[in-house]
Design a protein that fits this description.
- 46% of the residues lie in helices and 6% in strands.
- By secondary structure, it is of the alpha+beta class.
- Helix 6 runs antiparallel to helix 8, helix 10 runs antiparallel to helix 12 and helix 11 crosses helix 12.
- The longest helix has 17 residues.
- The chain is elongated, with a radius of gyration of 21 Å.
- 45% of the residues are buried.
């Protein structure tokens, strides 16, 4: 089961800071099928949908989106609320403080709430304005920047589209739950493997938006960023899984990279046995999923 790492702004009510470092996609040479064969373990890195930077003079400097059309729409809809959270305000300081806390460090978050208590009403007003604006009048402008009914986003537009189309029913309850939201940030946290909301979201992703072939840690990506889901889905339903599983072996970093090199016929492929598994997988893929994996 492959998982995602998320970043986002605070959630009103629980006021949980959810922030983590980005994971850049590790990609390799074109495998000749129209995409990029890559390790999927770091392919789902995300960025925050909100940050403080220079923005509209009338609405302050709080930037919600890097997309100009989305930012402009949100400024039109929520200008007063954005201005109330301008740099230097208690609202901005509250957000910055909480986003510097570990997601599961409630003591740190409570400290921010106490230190910047005066900023809570402005932050609540901002969130309560932004969410309906993103889902309503700014939906088209901001469609590629947010996931379902949250303030979360990802680098991959294909992933956002797939989640929004298939998995909002399981994503939204997870994103709104403190513990499950923390698992979205860091799947290795204690309790994530038994969190039912998180399991439901992952089941939906495995069914509709798989990050890789057959839980192998390797998948086909367009531009090294966007998973080619139709290819992954076809492979996962084909007879090709034993070949790709044999190719990655113990799925260590070294073994996975060797398989990728062999799939891409790179000079780094020095193991004839792995090359045999890679060739068998490519033949199976071309036989059973040629159209879906053509890129």
């Amino acid at each position: 089961m492959k998982t995602s790492h998320w970043m986002g702004m605070l959630f009103v009510g629980a006021l949980v800071a959810v922030a983590c470092g980005d994971d850049d996609t590790t990609s390799d040479d074109d495998d000749g099928t129209g995409g990029t064969t890559s390790s999927s373990s770091s392919s789902s890195g995300t960025t925050s949908s909100s940050s403080s930077s220079s923005g509209s003079q009338d609405c302050g400097s709080f930037q919600i989106s890097d997309e100009p059309a989305c930012q402009s729409c949100l400024e039109t809809q929520c200008c007063a609320q954005l201005l109330a959270c301008d740099t230097g305000t208690d609202c901005a300081n509250l957000i910055d403080c909480a986003n510097n806390c570990d997601p599961d460090d409630q003591t740190c978050i409570d400290g921010c709430l106490t230190q910047y208590q005066a900023g809570q009403p402005a932050y609540a007003a901002l969130f309560n304005c932004l969410e309906p604006a993103i889902q309503g009048p700014c939906a088209d402008s901001c469609a590629s920047t947010t996931i379902c009914n949250s303030e979360l986003t990802m680098e991959s537009e294909a992933a956002i589209e797939c989640i929004n189309t298939n998995c909002c029913d399981s994503f939204d309850p997870c994103a709104e739950d403190i513990d499950c939201n923390a698992c979205l940030q860091d799947p290795e946290l204690t309790g994530c493997d038994t969190n039912t909301l998180y399991a439901a979201y992952n089941t939906c992703m495995d069914t509709n938006c798989p990050w890789d072939y057959c839980d192998s840690g390797i998948g086909l990506y367009a531009g090294g960023v966007d998973p080619i889901y139709e290819c992954h889905l076809c492979i996962n339903a084909s007879t090709c899984c034993p070949d790709i599983i044999a190719c990655v072996g113990d799925q260590s970093q070294t073994a996975t990279q060797m398989c990728i090199d062999c799939l891409n016929q790179d000079s780094g492929c020095t193991d004839t046995t792995i090359q045999g598994h890679a060739d068998a997988f490519q033949a199976c893929k071309n036989n059973e999923c040629a159209n879906e994996c053509s890129g």
